[in-house]
Amino acid sequence: MHDSQPATTSYRLRIWANGIEEEWSVPLDGNDANALWDEAAVTACDMIRDIKFGGMRPDLDWHFEVCDPAGTVISRFSFRAERLA
Fold first, then answer.
1. CA separation (Å) from 42 to 8, 51, 58, 75?
2. For residue range 31-74, what is the model confidence (pLDDT) as tens digits?
3. Which residue of 2, 4, 54, 60 pairs with 81 in a disulfide if CB–CB is 3.0 to 4.6 A?
4. Who contacts 45 (Cβ-Cβ below 8 Å, separation ≥6)?
């Protein structure tokens, strides 16, 4: 007998800080590229907005990547803070 539930595609939002994947990377359900893009964009904006005064340090380098079930990056948002002088 076949399972009557549709297969779900498991995408992942991987969050990298200075080259290290953060433990709070999260699974994403669905396969709508626009919805996955929107969720990654909102998450990136929320995290940057939540940095408190003094928490934004020079050389902060974040990447927010949406990966498909095979691990291929399908979209990426990047944020880098630099002190130039």
1. 22, 15, 23, 13
2. 788 888 888 888 888 888 887 766 778 888 889 999 988 989 99
3. 60
4. none
Domain-wise residue ranges, the chain: 10-81
d(CA 3, CA 28): 22
- Residue found by looking up tokens 């709508």 in the block: 32
CA dist., res. 30 & res. 23, Å (int): 21
Q: H helices of the chain, where? A: 33-49
The residues, any chain, with a CB within 8 Å of residue 69's CB and separated by 6 or more, are 9, 10, 11
d(CA 36, CA 61): 22
CA distance 4 to 9: 16
| Cβ proximity of 67 and 39 under 8 Å | no
- Is the pTM higher than 0.85? The answer reads no
